Amino acid sequence: MGKKKQRQGMAAIEFALVLPVIALLLMLLVEGANAMHTYSSLVEASREGARHVLLEGNEANVEALVNALVADLDTRDLSTNVVMDPVAKTVTVEVSYDYQFFGFNNAGPSILDDESKTVQLIAQTTMPMP
User: Any idea what the Cα angle at residue 99 is, between residues 62 and 107, rounded to 5°?
Assistant: First the structure.
């Protein structure tokens, strides 16, 4: 066997050893970007919800507004909480979402338990009332 064939074989082995690490890093990068996008959407929805309460003077349609703004998220995992504090003269809108890693859903068997699959993302906006 020649030296060239041995080097080609070593390159293939090195590639086979490095490929899973690179694939894992790429998957983590994509998942992190997706989580940041989801959190950014929640922050924007909480801000718009607080603005809505200030403009309308009540909290009647805040949940519908938040659901419309984050329409790409599963509304079963989304919750909206509005607190109007007349003493401090503030309105607080909190939007929370159970983010599922790697698109896991709660159906079917998995090697991960249910708590390992999700993390709760919470965005909160407090604005002063006029």
Answer: 110
